[in-house]
Amino acid sequence: MPPLASPTSPTPAQAHPLQGDTKARLLEAFVLLFAERGFHATSMRAVTQMAGTSVSAAHYHFGSKEDLLRQALRRRSELLNARRFEYLDRAEAAEFEGNGRVRAILEAFILPLFELRPEVSQQQNPQRNLAARLYVDPPEVVKKIRQEVFAAVTSRFRESLANAIEGADPERVELALELSLGVMVHSISGRLSWPDQTTDPEGSKRKELVGRLVAFAAAGVLAVVEGEVEAPLLSAGRAGE
Amino acid sequence: MPPLASPTSPTPAQAHPLQGDTKARLLEAFVLLFAERGFHATSMRAVTQMAGTSVSAAHYHFGSKEDLLRQALRRRSELLNARRFEYLDRAEAAEFEGNGRVRAILEAFILPLFELRPEVSQQQNPQRNLAARLYVDPPEVVKKIRQEVFAAVTSRFRESLANAIEGADPERVELALELSLGVMVHSISGRLSWPDQTTDPEGSKRKELVGRLVAFAAAGVLAVVEGEVEAPLLSAGRAGE
DNA sequence: GTCTATATGTTGATAGAC
DNA sequence: GTCTATCAACATATAGAC
To answer: Distance (Å) from the C-alpha of residue B24 to the closest C-alpha of chain A?
Structure first.
């Protein structure tokens, strides 16, 4: 059998009427396909076809596939980062009881991802897929650009969380935030069934689900940062062998 | 510039002295490369080269790349699943105070992944990388085979967890377990720094880290299953827009 | 069983006309 | 700026000798 025509999925999003000039359409098309298939499986041909232009036009504008990825992700992450900072400012300014601030900080971290609408509405939600793919796609390029794009956010949230929990060990805060990120990423990796506009028109179910994510993360963070290290209940101490 | 010779990483694991007959060496080589690069970026050429044989030998034994993946994953997951069931049996049989059983069940779910040693020791820990890749690699084939391989485990843990929490809503249990899986997957996705044999010869740091993972997950599960749904502290209710 | 040689299609990138 | 045509390297898979 010859190589499969479409390696991941049978080209699910084909005839998008993407708008803007060639450069903008290319960025949009790349994001959509990358979110769905990952870097490797997203060919320049597929991108340029979706954008209604040619491969050489893409190379004229971006030079290489890697630079196309970089510019696309920079553009996309700006909105997300901006709202995260906005919420974090609010969380730091407000008064809270008990563990309220910790929960507010995690909300500031998690909520924005679920609030931002995709510009292109035909797809389910490229923004979420994109974030998932970004943390999950193997190629080194992706890792590099992701760090580049989120470095500022990460360090500010770490700092804020450390300040919110009295006497917190920085190392544990880092771990806790990282695991929260894991919860968030996993929740958008296509394994949870998010109600869509038709079955949940007011978005109440989606809000509830996001609320549970935050609750899970907040409880986990507190357990890691404030809790004692407990001996395993099972296993003859084989962990870490 | 022509396409890069090595798309993900500069062939980090090259001269493995893999053992066994051709079939076994092929399975082992495939697992190592797949864990590192994902399905797409793992070419039959690279696999057969590492196994010290030819492409056609691989096709003789497995028929296709997909079947190679399937057999490799089946073989690898057997040990993991067996130990998970073993621990779960133990968690269900023992007596616990308070939320002990919930934590024990999560231990049964999480611990085995960190206990199993790779047969090939040169790599850091292919077993963990493998699990991460398995939940994260885009291609549909991977998703299909993963479900095939973990279906039994998932349903039994869901059931067990539901029984352990009085009056638990099955839907919430499912969500909680899924998020725990997210924590686990993320923790092995190469974003956490696991101390290795040299800096942590007795494995005490690694055990502590695994303990924290379990603590995070257990607290999160209880918060999701037992906690009330709380209104967001930030945002004008934009979530789920 | 395992090899070499080959078939056939894909990829990223470029040259040159317009 | 955008196109068509083409390149060299890669992919999976197969044919046939040994």
So the answer is: 24
Angle between helices B65-93 and B126-136 (to 10 degrees): 110
Q: How far is A113 from chain B (nearest CA, A)?
A: 9
Here the tokens at position A231 are: 């001996």
Amino acid at B22: T
DSSP codes of every residue in B132-168: HHHHH---HHHHHHHHHHHHHHHHHHHHHHHHHSTT-
- Residue A3 within a domain: no
**Residues 128 to 157 of B: which have CB under 8 A from any A CB?**
133, 135-140
A49 touches strand D (CB under 7 A): no
Distance B2 CA to D7 C1' (A): 9
- For residues B130 and B187, state if they share a domain: yes
**What's the CATH code of the domain at B116?**
1.10.357.10
| Substitution target from B109, B186, B213 for chain A, most A beta carbons within 10 A | B186
Sign of CA dihedral A225, A226, A230, A232: negative
Residue A241 domain-assigned (yes or no): no
Could you tell me if B26 and B48 are in contact, meaning their C-beta atoms sit under 8 angstroms apart?
A: yes
Domain that holds residue B38: 11-63
Place of tokens 């299953």: B225
Residue numbers of chain A with a pLDDT score lower than 50: 1-15, 118-123
The helix (run of H) or strand (run of E) holding residue A206 is helix A204-226
| Number of domains into which chain B is organized | 2
Whether B213 and B163 share a structural domain? yes
Which residues in range 56-95 of chain B are in contact with strand C, contact meaning CB within 7 A of any of its atoms?
56-57, 60-61
Residue A152 host element (H or E): helix A140-164
pLDDT beyond 50 at B44: yes
Question: In this predicted model, what pLDDT tens digit does every residue of B146-176 receive, in sequence order?
Answer: 998 999 999 999 999 999 999 999 999 999 9
How many Å does it take to go from CA A61 to C1' D9? Answer: 24
Give the pLDDT of residue A18. 86
Q: Which CATH number goes with the domain that contains A51? A: 1.10.10.60
Interface contact flag, A8 B138, Cβ < 8 Å: yes
Q: What angle do CA B66, B70, B76 make, to 5 degrees?
A: 145
Are residue A97 and residue A56 in the same domain, yes or no? no
User: Measured between alpha carbons, how far is A112 from A84 in angstroms, rounded to an integer?
Assistant: 6
Category of B119 on φ-ψ map: left (φ > 0), alpha (ψ -120 to 50) or beta: alpha
Q: Which two tokens stand for residue A195?
A: 């109600």
Residues B164 and B52 in one domain: no
